[in-house]
Structure formats: structure tokens, C-alpha cells
Amino acid sequence: MSSATVIATEPNPQQQTHDPSHPQSAYSNRQVPSSLQLQDIETRDVSQAMDFNTTQYYLKCAVGGSLAGALTNTLVCPLDVVKVRKQVYPNIYKNTFQSIGVVWKNEGFRGLFSSATSVMLGYGIQGGAKYGFYEFFKFRYTDLLGPDASGKYQSLIYLSAGASAELIADVLYCPVESVKIRMQTTIPTFASGPIDGLRKIIKSEGFGALYKGLIPLWSRQLPFTMTKFTLFENVVSAIYKKLPREKEDYNHLQQTGISFLAGYIAGIACALVSHPPDVMFSKMNAMKKAPGDTTNKLLTKIYKEIGFRGLWNGLPVRIFMIGTLTGLQWLVYDSFKVMTGLPTTGK
């Protein structure tokens, strides 16, 4: 019987004796919890009894991750368009506000959201795979190390689970990202949508062109995601250690607020560690691959053109974008988990 049931069915305190030996007399002086507290007690009992190593659990996490990725990245699509154009055409697009003005003047609203469909599709796929597989690998690696070692090496588990999930997610995401960048950097846009873009690239350059940016994508996303999950988990843990009560004593709104704060902090660090490969990836996908061009040749050519300083083009807007984005993603993800009866991430 859950604690919520015990409270709901106890006798009227006025009818109870105050005999200390009576098992229910301890309740006589307690305040009856509110409906919100009862809901949290019930959810806590369910989460404690839940088996997290199930297909149903991982699917819920994948759906939550897909929503988090698709909704948040579509929301900041104009910033992403500006960021990519600044990286590819730094002589035209000088700063964030000037760049937004240039795009708005020349292309209007459609220009700022020129890749919205590709963004929603691509990040929906990537987010679902990333969060779902992260939860899967986190459980697997914890189980592999055992209770003693896993407690000692928690950050290593987070790093490894994040890296494993990202490797898989990027294989699914890379073709759509290639189309997205082409659509963001061509005027008029070279395709009407992601499917049309995939078809055109395959027809003109072959299927392999969809994956020419996979290595740069991994070099950007692996440090990004490893930082994102590891720092988030540790920041959440640090916040709850500083608070006067246990995590389970805070309601869902408070817990998801902590998720947003920890996500924002993690997002700032993610932007810093992943920005140079993000610039290289954007430049590479904006170029047409000539016969005989290898990834190493293209990377060398790009670096000769932009130099070390060029690797940091667009960093301020990306810090703001990724910080906000990551905070919102964790907010959406953990809110979805709560809605489906799961606990928020972290402890």
C-alpha cells in the first residue's frame, strides 16, 4: 500500500486515542497533505518501484528527447541561420543583429526560417536517438561496472554513455544536417524541403556526399554531448546537495526548474568546447565536393582560408543560442518524463 493510500484512509484524528503504542496514533498530530503533495508521494512510490531497464522506459525517453530536440531547435532557427551564414560568409554577415537585418531585408520571414522543416526533422531524429540511447548506455555501463565502481566513476559513465549515444545519433542525423546547411547558405534556397534536398544531393553528388561531414560532425558533437550530459548530471547533483531537502521533497515544477538551470550552465560549456569543429562543419557542408577531395583535404583547405581566429566566428551568438537551447531541452525532456510517470533526470 502506498503512503498516499495510508493517509487517505486514516480515521478522523478526533476519534483516535493518543496511546503511543497504537500504530496509527503517530498520524494524529500530522497535517493532511495537499493534493499536489499526494501526487508527488504517489509518483515517488511509482518511480521507486519502476524498472528502468525496459523497452517502454527507453522509448519514453526517446520520444521526450525527440520533442526536446525538434521544438527547441526550431524555435531558435533564425539564430542558427545567422550563425551558419556568419561562419560561411564572414565578410557579409558581421554580427548577429546586422545579420538578422540583412536576411530579413533580402529574404523576409522565410529567409530566417529557411531550414525550419529540416531543423525539426533532423533534430527530432537526433534528439530521440541521443536521449534514448544515453539512458540505455548509462544503465548498461552502470550494470557493467557494478555498484561499487559505478558509484566511484559516475562521471566516466556519463561521458561514455553520452559518447556512445552521439555516435549512433549522428549517423542518423548527418544527411539531414547536410541539407539544412545547404538550404541556409544558398539564395534562393537550393531545395524546397529536406526530402527534396536529399534527392538533389544524391542525384548530383552521390549518396556519399550526405556523409562527407560525418567526421567533422562527430568532432563537434562528441565533445558537445559528453559535456552536456556529464556537466548536467553533476550540476544537478551539486544543486541538490546545496539545498536543505532531498530531491524527492521538491515538487515537479521545482525539479524541472532545476533541470533548466543545470541545462543552461551545461550549454554554455558545450558551446565553448564544440565551436571550432562547428565552424569547420558549416564551411565544409557549404562547399561542393570535387572529385578526389577527401575530408582531410577539405579541412586543410578551409583552415588555410580562415586561420585560427576564423574558428571562433559566431561564438557569442552560439553561446547564447546553445545555453538557452540546452536549458530548454532539459526542461522539455524532464517535463515530458514527469507527464509520463517518470522521474526527472539526475539525483
UniProtKB/TrEMBL annotation:
The residue range of the signal peptide is: none
Instruction: State one Pfam family annotation.
Output: Mito_carr
Coiled-coil-forming residues are none
Tell me what topology the record assigns in the membrane. Multi-pass membrane protein
Which GO cellular component terms are attached?
mitochondrial inner membrane
Per the record, which residues fall in region Disordered? 1-30
A single BP term in Gene Ontology: mitochondrial phosphate ion transmembrane transport
Gene Ontology MF terms in the entry: phosphate transmembrane transporter activity
Source organism, top-level taxon: Eukaryota
Specify where it is mainly localized: mitochondrion
InterPro entries found in the cross-reference section = MCP_dom_sf (IPR023395), MCP_transmembrane (IPR018108), SLC25A3/Pic2/Mir1-like (IPR044677)
UniProt keyword list: Membrane, Mitochondrion, Mitochondrion inner membrane, Repeat, Transmembrane, Transmembrane helix, Transport
Q: Respond yes or no to whether keyword Mitochondrion is given for this record.
A: yes
Q: Where in the cell is it found?
A: Mitochondrion inner membrane
Q: Where are the Solcar repeats?
A: 56-140, 153-238, 254-339
Query: Is Transmembrane among the key words of this record?
Result: yes
- What is stated as this protein's family in its record? Belongs to the mitochondrial carrier (TC 2.A.29) family.
Please give the PANTHER family that the UniProt record associates with this protein. SOLUTE CARRIER FAMILY 25 (MITOCHONDRIAL CARRIER PHOSPHATE CARRIER), MEMBER 3, LIKE-RELATED-RELATED, SOLUTE CARRIER FAMILY 25 MEMBER 3
Q: What is the recorded name of this protein?
A: Mitochondrial phosphate carrier protein
Query: What broad taxonomic lineage does this protein's source fall under?
Result: Eukaryota, Fungi, Dikarya, Ascomycota, Saccharomycotina
